Amino acid sequence: EKFIDIIKSHKIEQVREVNINYCFFEVKTIVRKSEELRVIQIIQDITELKEKEAELVFKSIAVKETHHRVKNNLQTVISLLRKQSRLTDNEEVKMCLDNVTNRVFAILSNHHLLSKQMDNSISILQAINLLISNIQGGYCDDKNINIYITGEDFKINGEKSSALLLAINEAIQNCYDHAFEGKDSGNIQVLVNEEGNKNIIAIVDDGIGFKNDAKLKTNLGTFIIDSYIKQVLKGDVEKISTDKGTKIIFKIPK
Prior knowledge:
The protein is an alpha+beta fold. It has 7 helices and 10 strands.
């Protein structure tokens, strides 16, 4: 009697799912206060919705597994490139192989992060940290180069992230290779921000700067940055360089 009194003095709603012969139903039970006990049940067939949810989960798992396999294959490629780099005595060939290795690693980083996500997007700050740790690990000279990452994180989908990471990798690699010639130390800042409907990434160093000569415009690094940012991502590239340092700014539509 006490239980009935409690039910009669309250409005109670309960929703549960029922599985009957591979069909799914949502059963909503409503108990309303009344002189007489009134129980209303609303039954909705949600079989199609559950099937779509299961299909999405299956696709997500399949995509994650694909990214994982691509990552493993790229790790094999990187191992072969590093092995070949160690075997050669030609410094120019060694530099070319190391640069190619870093570019492959930029793609690998993308698949590594995507393999851990349920959605098809990655954190740009996580990706930049991976790139930097790889580049730093490849330098054994005596230069003291400090690198800082600041700004607000944003996510970018898998279709765009590989292109952006390749461009960021190229800009940071250029700093390490050329910005501090003749100097014992230097600083690199990676700034991540938003500006209206665009995501902004700036790579800033306090090195010796560069000249806008024909050779620079035709090298592979410049081609990668310009082609991926402008053509693939439909963004803009701004380059500012003086004898006090260089700033490269990527502006990517959201």
